[in-house]
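User: Sequence in, structure out. Go.
Assistant: Echoing your sequence, followed by the structure tokens.
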Amino acid sequence: MDISPPTAQQLALSHLASQPDPDAKPRLYTLSDLLIRTKDKRLIPLVPNEVQAQYLDQICPTWRDGGQIQLQGARELILKSRQFGFSTLILALLFLDTINTPHTQTVVVAHDMDSTIRLFQMVQRFYKHLPEPKPRA
């Protein structure tokens, strides 16, 4: 069996084949692409609960049809009770906006270090479990 080194043309074709299509539209990630951790520590897809769904209906009526949720210039004040999942939802929306919108930077500030760490861990989990190909910085 004759195994000869690849020619320059073969290497060039191989390199081109491994490159993403420049005309292809980038994948848009949605809420259902994100995994959240339940109280019993299972990972499940983020499916908005009733209260979260009402909020999403107000800011992006097309979200139920898989429409992109855009937060461009959005500034929201939410008076909320605990345990309705709004921290998770808002963080998910900010995360999606950041990865779906080129040149976007997002800063989340919490009131104490423990909360900051918990929120950052949630963002790390969102990214770690995204379907491939994952966006790269």
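User: And one key feature?
Assistant: The chain has a mean pLDDT of 81.
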